[in-house]
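cron nightly-structures :: item 1 of 1
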Amino acid sequence: MNPVIFHTAAGRVATRLMPGDCFSSALATALVAGAELTEAVVFACQVAAMSTTKPGAQSSMPRREEILLAI
């Protein structure tokens, strides 16, 4: 099996507290909503990347509207 690489937009990192949690929850959310795996991974990568751009833990989690605008 060949590996697949997913990229997100690079940005300034303000925290490293939440990207793993954000990725997991965003991936699960997208899959439950009916997204294909590739689409769900792209969504989850974007959420994880965006979660590092604001300081804090819970406050750094992006809102769905922000994510959809960024994708």
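cron nightly-structures :: done
Residues 37-51 form the longest helix (15 residues).
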